Amino acid sequence: MRLLPRRLLSRIMLLIAILLAVSIYASLKIFDYFDREPRATAAALQAVTIVNYTRASLIASHENRRLALLSELSGREGVRVYAADFLEDIEALPSDPFINLMAQKIRDKLGEETIITVNHYDIPGLWISFNVGQDDFWVVIPKIQVDRPFPWHWLGWAAVVGLLSLVGGYLLTARINRPLTMLVHAAERLRNGEPAPKLPEDSVEELREVTHTFNEMAESLARLDAERTLLLAGVSHDIRTPLARLRLAVEMLPQEADYMKHGMIEDISDMDNIIHQFLDFVRGVEGEPTRMMDINDLLRALSDRQLRAGRELKISLGPKYFIPIRPLAMQRLLDNLVGNAYNYGKGKVEVRSQVMADKIVVSVLDNGPGIPQEHAERLLRPFERMDSARNKYEGGSGLGLAICNRISKLHGGQLYLLNRPEGGLEARLSLPILPNT
């Protein structure tokens, strides 16, 4: 989800680059099309002038002086004059639009019978025929005077325009991407059960309404959560006082009622545990700071507490590795998972930790009946229970696993409930490894 804005930015920049390349190519083609007519007219006028000048010079000269004059004319400005034999093979003009347009304009001036070719006899240039009396001649205009040089300067300007456009497009997409990124991060915080920060509403016009609506939604959710917290905390607190009086009254019952006292005290303890879970759920753990610590230390302390309670908890610890942890919250998570394993299992519980390439995995294993796998995700939601599948223990409020799931997400991790192949349930906690600083 966090990568979405970056992908969007990359796609927008790629689209802008493609559109710029297409537009620059189209601009050059359009420029070449509209520039072709005046260039062809100017080149044709130059060629016609040279032909008329050469022809007039030959007509004005004496026949005996024509060969000398041809030699003299051929040396001026690279223009050459050759005697022509039109029985020779003459190649057609190439399919260049500019050359064909220029040739047509030359024929319009000199006559349709004028023969025009290029690179005749492998001599580069534009060859134009003319006659003086019964004699036929070629005027060869060097190629450099006919062709336009490659417009490198236009490519340079196009590159500058393209670069400036890309910079402008990047700034524009970055301005759009910034509120999108903030919106994605805020939505992710809401998904993880954390309060979302108020987003600035001074973004682009198209996203301003979305940001405003998201802020209103986040405020409404915060108010709803605060009201729910206040309600549950108030009810739980008010119920605990009469429960304490009720337990005291039960303890003071005469000895003849011992067969009733034990069951009533267990019921009161179950109710007190349910209220405790209510308070844990509404209290939250978001305000606790993180510490770099090894989760194996918490597992050892958990084993010691279970041993003092008369339970033997088997632990298998992986290598030491420090990650950011909220100690009290993580302790509550582990206590809940192990408590569930003892309540629903057959008294044999094992906890394992292992360090993998990108995460630390803590598994709480029991040998109970397990759960239907299709209900595993539902059991991580508040007030969900599955006593029909694991029916040994009927107490609880359905908040224990929800609290564990909230704490795991608060650490950037994930909680899974998996049936073991050999029987029983595995509660697997996956915590990401962050670089130590």
Automatic annotation (TrEMBL):
Residues 234-435 form the Histidine kinase domain. The keyword Oxidoreductase does not apply. Gene3D superfamilies: 1.10.287.130, Histidine kinase-like ATPase, C-terminal domain, Sensor histidine kinase RisS, periplasmic domain. The lineage of its organism: Bacteria, Pseudomonadati, Pseudomonadota, Betaproteobacteria, Nitrosomonadales. It comes from Methylophilus flavus. The chain crosses the membrane at residues 12-31, 154-173. One of its GO terms (molecular function) is ATP binding. It catalyses: ATP + protein L-histidine = ADP + protein N-phospho-L-histidine. It is an enzyme of class 2 (transferase). It is a multi-pass membrane protein. It holds the Pfam family HisKA. Keywords: ATP-binding, Cell inner membrane, Cell membrane, Kinase, Membrane, Nucleotide-binding, Phosphoprotein, Transferase, Transmembrane, Transmembrane helix, Two-component regulatory system. Its EC number is 2.7.13.3. It comes from the Bacteria. InterPro entries: 2C_sensor_his_kinase, HAMP_dom, HATPase_C_sf, HATPase_dom, His_kinase_dom, HisK_dim/P_dom, HisK_dim/P_sf, RisS_PPD. Residues 174-226 form the HAMP domain. It is found in: Cell inner membrane. This is histidine kinase.
